Amino acid sequence: MTNDLTDNLFSLIKSLSPSEKRQFSLYVGRIGVNSDSKFLNLFKVLSKQKKYDEEFVLKNTNISKQQLSNIKAHLYKQILISLRLNPAHQSIPIQIREQLDFAIILYRKGLYKQSLKLLDKTKATALAYEEKNLAYEILELEKIIESQYITRSIENRAETLIKQTEELTRLSEISSKLSNLSLQLYGIFLKMGYARTEEEAEAIRHYFDTNLPDYKFSDLGFKEKLWLYQTHLWFSFITQNFLNAFKYSSKWIDLFNDNEHLIPVHPVFYLKGNHYLLESLFYLNHTTTFEKVLHRFEDTLKNPKIPDDDNIASLSFLYLYENKLNLKFMKGEFDGGENLVEKIEQKIKRYKGKIDEHHIMVFYYKIASLYFGSGNNKKCIEYLRKIIYNKSLEMREDLMCFSRILSLVAHYEAGMDYHLERLIKTTYKFLIKMNDLHEVQKEMIKFLRNLPDVSPLDIKNEFKKLHATLKQYEDHPFERRAFLYLDIISWLESKIENRPVADIIKEKVNEYAR
Fold first, then answer.
1. To 10 degrees, the CA torsion angle through 294, 297, 298, 302?
2. So what's the pLDDT on residue 28?
3. Band (482; pLDDT cuts 50, 70, 90)
4. Is there a contact between 265 and 125 (Cβ–Cβ < 8 Å)?
């Protein structure tokens, strides 16, 4: 047994809820001979361990070292079978696959009409719940039976099956191309973030137009529309067209509202749609609407239609708390965020292994920004270091770049200027390496580099000069990207007016709401 499989078995056992453990014991105990079986004893020992200890396992079971590998593999398989039988995991796709398995058994028993009857019923369910790939599998089995045996089940049966197969094949091809394009755009966003130049935006636009398949909207089903909206959404985010991002995330949610029976079948997509709707409102700075949608989303998470499992729980945490942080930024409520940060840290530990490092680093950047806004610059630097010194992070180059920019400003604010010259040099080199040295970043670095030579009497004038310089980039299609990560303009205004940055942002929120 490889270490990977050992770790997989141990983590699977640790993920089981008390009710799932009870069911496994009942499942194994259904056959009396299993009550003292070696794999059950192994399960009991591993359930009690906090960390895998092979010596302890061998000492407390009658399993030899040579047997251990095979028994682990058998236990892993039995746990999965038990979970599959658990009503909590009996989703629509699993139920359809189960009925398909039953139909195959009937076919092999020579009970062809029974098999076809079950397949026809199961196919209707698959199509009703937009499980087109499963419907295609069912059609293929129907064709095998019809071509092998003359059942005369329905007149013109062959023509009907051929027409259904052709239709599903056509839609499947569109769906596949759209899902591929969506995934490719998401990969681009994870790698570089938002388009940095007109050339990058044009390249993305060309890539999008070239790979978007031909389709007639009226022919599209739920899944095809879902991939279409998701594809447009990622294209909109990368090119910083947040109004379009709002448009397509709204269409995404409306699609689910029009097909409520599919929310329990595709809960992950439903949650993602809500998250992207909130994210587009965040970038559009529509605070009042954002707050309403966030409260609605929080209520949605309590909806019994949303399955209660570890995957949904970890995603709910990601989307809810990321947007709770965003609301604080939008309203300028930086003070008193310690309780929220503490909850986030606890949940990151709880869902460790279920949340990828990219999302954890996004949390750290937002927490650092929260502390920066409240004036706790040392805590801000502490969280930024978690990103800057993360050697394994290979995504979101923009996140790594702006973490260094914010770190420079936080070091200045904390009075830690003895590090500033060295940090400026390393940041400058990093931005050049990442091809991310644009006008806003250049002006910030130039400003910070010259600060030690500026007289205290002239410092306010220097802030005013930088504010006037950066203000012209606020609505620039690509330079404004910097302001998505750090509200430099509000920070400068706070330095010029000798007021907390939170007060400046709150005033802007109130002004915008009028």
1. 170
2. 81
3. low
4. no
